[in-house]
Structures are given as C-alpha cells and as structure tokens.
C-alpha cells in the first residue's frame, strides 16, 4: 500500500494520514483518500489541508454537495 511509501518516524498520526490522503487522491484511490482525510479530521478538526483534500476528493467522486459543505 501507499502507507509504506510515506515513512516518517516520529511524525504525528494526523500528519502521516494527511500525507497518505493526498497520495491516494493524486493516484486516483479516491475512497482511500476520503477515508484517510476523514480520519485526520476526527484527530484534528481544524486541519485545513485535510478539509481541502476531502473537498477535492468529493469533487472527483462527483459528490459536489459534499464538496461544497467542505468549503
């Protein structure tokens, strides 16, 4: 999985998962990107990068209503 491609010893879980969500989004693994971004937002509801990543993911999934709620 892409999880192994993002080694960051000692990094907070939210940072690792944020980077993983972006990697999934960039490679077209949209459901995985959604899951990871949502996990980050449960860990840190004010993580702006994950809000944007989740919004972009929703756009790519054709879920414009969900994307609008993110922005």
pLDDT averaged residue by residue: 89
Terminal Cα separation, in Å? 29 Å
What is the β-strand count?
0
Radius of gyration: 12 Å
Strand content: under 5%
Describe the global form: globular
What does it look like?
The chain is mostly helical and 71 residues long. The protein is built from 4 helices and no strands. The protein starts with 12 loop residues before the first helix and ends with a helix.
What's this entry about, in short?
This protein is an all-alpha fold.
Could you give the topology of this structure?
Layout: H1 13-26, H2 30-43, H3 48-60, H4 64-70
Helix pairs in contact: 1-2, 1-3, 2-3, 3-4
Offer a few descriptive terms:
mainly alpha
């Amino acid at each position: 999985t892409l999880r192994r491609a993002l080694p960051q010893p000692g990094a907070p879980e939210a940072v690792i998962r944020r980077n993983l969500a972006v990697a999934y989004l960039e490679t077209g693994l949209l459901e995985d990107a959604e899951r990871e971004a949502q996990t980050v937002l449960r860990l840190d509801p004010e993580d702006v990068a994950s809000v944007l990543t989740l919004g972009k993911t929703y756009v790519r999934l054709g879920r414009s209503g969900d994307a609008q709620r993110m922005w």
